[in-house]
Specification:
Double Stranded RNA Binding Domain; pyruvate-formate lyase- activating enzyme; single chain; globular; nine-stranded mixed beta sheet; 481 residues; 43% helix; alpha/beta; five-stranded mixed beta sheet; 18 strands
């Protein structure tokens, strides 16, 4: 699809909006007037005249209006384009004009500036957000705000990456290495990771920073042996001042990597939140997406963790997986609720560019969009009745149904790290391959990033470069604090 951007600089937002309605189209941005080739989206700003014309499948719609010099022309163009798409496709988007990752952060900014009632009206009347999603945003923002208030000027969180998995799921785009191919990399990787953890702890100590949350993610951290897992966790505890830590999460992830020995190692480290992520309780769906475990293995791992004493267990699920249906997804939700987890994260399948499923040229159908919407509606209704409430939410490009990912938790069992990383509340010091340190200037939106090398072999071979690069944390804090 050709997207014509004439006399304005709003290509990014209009391209995202176009992709939300036409996720299967490859969009080509054109900034000069040429012969219009269907399918196309034509947008133009000429003095105070704003024009949008859309032609798809021999259907054509156009919108035109005048704007004052002080008007938000980007918003007006987006609204004209949205209205044209609605007429051509006969459907609306649940989040209206919103295409960004952090709708809750936007709602909070509006509420802080103009009041909650004004923010609600803006979401509904200007951004065209549906009543269902507006209500979800309001509840999530109220719960999230309590968590944000815990963060202070010297707060930071720690993220540690274990970029290894038993196998790669077909929807995954993370840089992770399958154990079969990368087993020889694990020991040298852990050795260097311990070094980075110790050096990062020294930086935090030198700057008098206060550690709020720790998150061990991946990949699948429990692909490590119990011994290596203990080495990582014990190094964290011995290197950092843990007295201020409010939450310590290990993302066990794949049930087929969980053993009693590993769970005991995690529990002994002081971890108080464990995430075990089946994604679905349908065995045929698990096979279709490339996960080498069964529902029975997940239930066994969950029950073992509970028996050993884990008080906060989270489970991740995905709506819209290959071969899943609304009915089988409902059974998954019912099965998860029967286990009584403290928190549940419901993801919507995103057609990520580098995933196997996208590489296979899978197309998003309207039936899938409708089905995944029904899945989320059922999940939200059941989780609410089970006394879980939404505490964080984010969105991604090319999600089925243009929907969202939402974390649900019982009162007192929110994942603080999830909120801090998504809101960009405070600094995240990150260790490991593919990890990104995010340095946040307190009281502002200013953020700077330090990228670690993506692949384990790069990370181990070039660690000395990374160690020097990370000294920029000192410069940042000397400048902004």
């Amino acid at each position: 699809m050709n997207l014509y951007i004439i006399n304005h600089t709003f290509a990014y937002e209009l391209e995202n909006l176009t992709r939300a309605f036409f996720p299967n189209e490859k969009i080509r941005v054109i900034t000069e007037i040429t012969d219009l080739e269907e399918p196309y989206v034509y947008t133009e700003v000429s003095d105070d005249n704003l024009t949008v014309k859309v032609s798809v499948d021999s259907k054509t719609e156009s919108e035109h209006t005048k704007a004052k010099e002080t008007d938000d022309k980007e918003l007006i163009l987006a609204t004209l384009l949205y209205n044209s798409f609605v007429k051509i496709t006969s459907r609306t988007l649940p989040w209206g004009l919103l295409t960004g990752v952090r709708p809750i952060k936007l709602f909070r900014k509006l509420a802080d500036k103009e009041g909650r009632e004004s923010a609600e009206k803006y979401f509904k009347n200007t951004l065209l957000v549906s009543d269902e999603k507006l209500n979800l945003a309001k509840i999530t923002e109220a719960n999230e705000r309590k968590i944000l208030d815990l963060s202070e000027r010297d707060s930071f969180s720690l993220y540690v990456s274990i970029p290894f998995c038993p196998s790669r799921c077909n929807y995954c785009s993370f840089v992770s290495q399958s154990v079969e191919k990368a087993k020889h990399l694990i020991k040298p990787y852990v050795d260097i990771l311990l070094k980075e953890i110790e050096e990062t702890a020294k930086i935090a100590k030198d700057l008098n920073l206060r550690l709020e949350t720790v998150y061990i993610g991946g990949g699948t951290p429990t692909t490590l042996s119990a011994e290596d897992l203990s080495r990582v966790l014990n190094t964290i505890r011995q290197s950092f001042d843990m007295s201020s830590v409010r939450e310590f999460t290990v993302e066990a992830g794949r049930p087929d990597t969980i053993t009693e020995e590993k769970l005991r190692a995690i529990l002994d480290s002081g971890c108080d939140r464990l995430s075990i992520n089946p994604q679905t309780l349908n065995d045929s769906v698990l096979t279709a997406i490339g996960r080498r475990h069964t529902t029975e293995e997940f239930v066994s791992a969950f029950n073992l963790a509970r028996k050993l004493g884990f008080k906060h267990i989270n489970t991740d699920l995905i709506a819209g997986l290959d071969t899943d249906t609304v009915e089988s997804f409902k059974k998954t939700i019912d099965g998860i609720i029967a286990l009584s987890p403290e928190s549940v994260t419901i993801h919507t399948l995103s057609m990520k560019r580098s995933s196997f499923i996208t590489a296979g040229n899978k197309l998003i159908t309207e039936n899938e969009n409708t089905s995944v919407s029904d899945m989320l509606s059922y999940a939200y209704e059941k989780l609410s009745s089970y006394n879980l409430r939404p505490y964080y939410l984010y969105r991604q490009s090319k999600m089925l149904g243009n929907l969202e990912n939402t974390g649900w938790a019982k009162e007192g069992y929110d994942c603080l790290y999830n909120v801090y990383i998504m809101d960009e509340t405070h600094t995240i010091l990150a260790c490991g391959a593919g990890a990104v340190t995010k340095l946040k200037a307190y009281g502002s939106e200013h953020l700077e990033r330090i990228f670690n090398f993506k692949y384990p072999y790069e990370y181990t071979d070039r660690y000395s470069e990374l160690s020097l690069r990370k000294q920029a944390v000192y410069d940042f804090y000397n400048k902004y604090f």
